[in-house]
Amino acid sequence: GRVRLAAFDALPWPAWTWKLPGGGTVTQELFLPHEQAAVVLRWTASGLPAGTTLRVRPLLALRDSHALRRERPGLAEQVEGQGERHRWRPDPALPAILSLANGRYEHRPDWFRNFLLEEERARGFDHIEDLWSPGELHFSLAEEEACWVLQAEGLAEAGSIGEGSPREVVGRLAAAERRRRGGFPTALHRAADQYLVRRGAGKTIIAGYPWFTDWGRDT
Fold it and tell me: What gap in Å lies between CA 116 and CA 94, rounded to an integer?
């Protein structure tokens, strides 16, 4: 956690480095590829003893940005796929979630309850929600970097992450995103570009994050 945080870098995307009690380090990177409904996570380590395992459990909100999710029995808890690729669709009203990772997946669905959203509470909104988790990923972090891509399935506006192993896909996405972000003359240009989004065959301007879509008055 925060007491072990040794460094943070925002460029070309957020990266956190933690120093562990034995002297080893773990760095986590996170970025969203441009115009793709996906998120990329990568962990690299140094100085860790052989056999060190990184365990990661996703917590999924499964909701619109204006809503909160409470535990709902009956959500589909099955998983499709095997090996490096899996597909979760707990709610048929929402897009399925595609997972590509070079870790071993253990299917253990569960609810994590009563998350307190302090900003919503301060503004007088509903402020308690539950998050669903399909299971855990186990990465052999001492042997190789851990690579994970999560993508929403079937969105017409989104591109494809492409085929290949998790390391190949993450490497390709990272190289393309590094080139794209490096092409902006200033940090202001780079930040402004995050508000230009695709809707169908055209483009629009998002009014603000995380709640607004392309709402003309606020834009």
Answer: 24
Mark out the alpha helices in the chain (DSSP H runs).
118-122, 166-182, 187-193
Question: Counting beta carbons within 10 angstroms of the beta carbon of residue 26, is it exposed (0 to 12), middle (13 to 18) or buried (19 or more)?
Answer: buried
How far apart CA 181 and CA 190 sit, in angstroms, is 7
Torsion from C-alpha of 179, 181, 184, 186, nearest 10 degrees: -140
Q: In sequence order, what are the residues at sequence separation of 6 or more whose Cβ sits closer than 8 angstroms to the Cβ of residue 17?
A: 5, 6, 7, 8, 25, 26, 27, 28
Q: The tokens of 93 are what?
A: 């009203």
Q: Which of 145, 154, 45 is nearest to 101 (CA)?
A: 145
Residue keyed to tokens 């996405």:
173
Q: State CA 199 to chain mean position distance.
A: 21
The pLDDT score that the predictor gives to residue 156 is 66
pLDDT of residue 74: 79
Among residues 78, 71, 69, the alpha carbon closest in space to that of 96 is found at 78
DSSP string, 82-132: ETTEEEE-S-TTS--EEEEESSEEEEEEEEEEEEE-HHHHHTTS--EEEEE
Is the CB of residue 44 less than 8 Å from the CB of residue 107? no
Average pLDDT on 168-172 reads 96
Q: Which tens digits make up the pLDDT trace of 144-156?
A: 999 999 999 987 6
Q: Can you tell me the mean pLDDT for 81-96?
A: 91
